Amino acid sequence: MFGLNPAVITERKSKYTYGVQVAKFFIEGQHREDYRFEHGGETRCFNCWSPYIQKGQAVEINDNITDYFAPLYKEYGSVGVTLFSSTEKDPKYTTDGGSKKLDESYYFVAGGGRKASLCEYEIRGHRNFCDCEKSGDGSERE
């Protein structure tokens, strides 16, 4: 039916959960102790999921998700953004069994290495999950 009238399909149910890997503030008793790290007086947890779309969620055609990224540390000159999928509806860590790395991108920020406020380092990423289009670094993928 899609080949006859593409306008008939307006949304789809996501087969996977999609999101990015982040370092959240560490919460005692909630996060894994072996993922705990400290820097500059902050305690964080590596390998955490930040979901964009959950498995089973309805996603409209041409629906976009926009997120803003900043370096973990002000002195970093780039931001690494790693996109994951999971067969689980609500994964906790990107290292969980159902998680799969889909893409890893690095965005260099102006004035890299210079100590500045994080707002000077804001990076905007965009991904369209229905068309499998990726922009932000100028490339497209199927």
Detailed description of the structure:
It is a single chain. The chain is mainly β and 142 residues long. The protein is built from no helices and ten strands. The protein has strands spanning 11-13, 17-25, 36-39, 42-53, 58-60, 65-69, 78-86, 99-108, 123-128, 133-135. The strands form three sheets. The protein has a five-stranded antiparallel beta sheet with strand order 3-4-2-7-8, with no helix packed on it. It has a three-stranded antiparallel beta sheet with strand order 6-9-10, with no helix packed on it. A two-stranded antiparallel ribbon has the order 1-5. A hairpin with a 4-residue loop joins strand 9 and strand 10 (133-135). The chain is globular. The protein starts with 10 loop residues before the first strand and ends in a 7-residue tail after the last strand.
Overview in brief:
By secondary structure, the protein is an all-beta fold. The chain has strands spanning 11-13, 17-25, 36-39, 42-53, 58-60, 65-69, 78-86, 99-108, 123-128, 133-135.
Any descriptors?
single chain, 142 residues, mainly beta, three-stranded antiparallel beta sheet
Secondary structure layout plus pairing:
Blueprint (H helix, E strand, L loop, with lengths): L10 E3 L3 E9 L10 E4 L2 E12 L4 E3 L4 E5 L8 E9 L12 E10 L14 E6 L4 E3 L7
Antiparallel strand pairs: 1-5, 2-4, 2-7, 3-4, 6-9, 7-8, 9-10
Average predicted confidence as pLDDT = 76
Specify the overall morphology. globular
Rg for CA atoms: 17 Å
Q: Could you give the count of β-strands? A: 10
- Please write the string of helix (H) and strand (E) elements: EEEEEEEEEE
Please identify the structural class as seen in this structure: mainly beta
Count of helical stretches: 0
Q: How much helix, percentage-wise, in residues?
A: under 10%
Strand arrangement within the widest β-sheet reads: 3-4-2-7-8
Main sheet properties = 5 strands, antiparallel
The low-pLDDT segments are 113-124, 130-142
Cα distance spanning the termini: 22 Å
Query: What percent of residues are in strands?
Result: over 45%
